[in-house]
């Protein structure tokens, strides 16, 4: 059972699809983009995926999301805290306090339920700068065309022959949430294609 914040687009959407492909029993997409979130549910399948309108900057909504998920599914195995913004006025509220609230409330229910789960947090701003295909990067660069963004990002990447995509981050998240990473803890896994600012 997984919660993916900011799961309606970009890395969150790619990760939700990846979890479904790898056999997740239930996925909750938590986002403020209602139409996109509902479309992700339809693409994955409403039998395993649901959408919840959710603003990570409101800690009470974080607690309600975690508690309602546990009440509905009986447990919470994975929290992918993926929400992030580029605008500084909300940057600290969403990227920092929102992530802390996600960890706080998820860890509490995992300990109480004796669930050995995964809490995966992403530094959205840092990753999205080097990640093509995210709305955040397009907004920051002011580009509409993916090819223009590809060119700019590949010039700033040490690894050549392509650009970092949401699926690359989704691969890392699925690995960290799997049994294959059972002895990986407190690790900063850098998935950035050697991007340099």
TrEMBL record:
InterPro entries: NAD(P)-bd_dom_sf (IPR036291), SDR_fam (IPR002347). Pfam families: adh_short. PANTHER family: (-)-ISOPIPERITENOL_(-)-CARVEOL DEHYDROGENASE, MITOCHONDRIAL-LIKE, SHORT-CHAIN DEHYDROGENASE REDUCTASE. Belongs to the short-chain dehydrogenases/reductases (SDR) family. This is Uncharacterized protein. The lineage of its organism: Eukaryota, Viridiplantae, Streptophyta, Embryophyta, Tracheophyta.
């Amino acid at each position: 059972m997984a919660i993916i914040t900011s799961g309606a687009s970009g890395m969150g959407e790619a990760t939700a699809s990846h979890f479904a492909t790898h056999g997740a029993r239930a996925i909750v997409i938590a986002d403020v983009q209602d139409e996109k979130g509902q479309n992700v549910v339809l693409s994955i399948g409403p039998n395993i995926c649901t959408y919840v309108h959710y603003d990570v900057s409101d800690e009470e909504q974080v607690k309600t999301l975690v508690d309602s998920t546990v009440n509905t599914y009986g447990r919470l195995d994975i929290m992918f805290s993926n929400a992030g913004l580029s605008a500084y006025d909300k940057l600290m509220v969403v990227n920092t306090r929102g992530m802390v609230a996600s960890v706080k409330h998820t860890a509490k229910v995992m300990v109480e339920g004796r669930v050995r789960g995964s809490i995966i947090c992403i530094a959205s701003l840092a990753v999205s700068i080097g990640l093509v295909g995210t709305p955040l990067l397009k907004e920051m660069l002011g580009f509409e065309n993916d090819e223009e963004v590809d060119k700019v990002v590949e010039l700033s990447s040490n690894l050549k022959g392509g650009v970092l995509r949401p699926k690359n981050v989704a691969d890392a998240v699925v690995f960290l949430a799997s049994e294959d990473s059972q002895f990986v803890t407190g690790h900063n896994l850098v998935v950035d294609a050697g991007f340099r600012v």
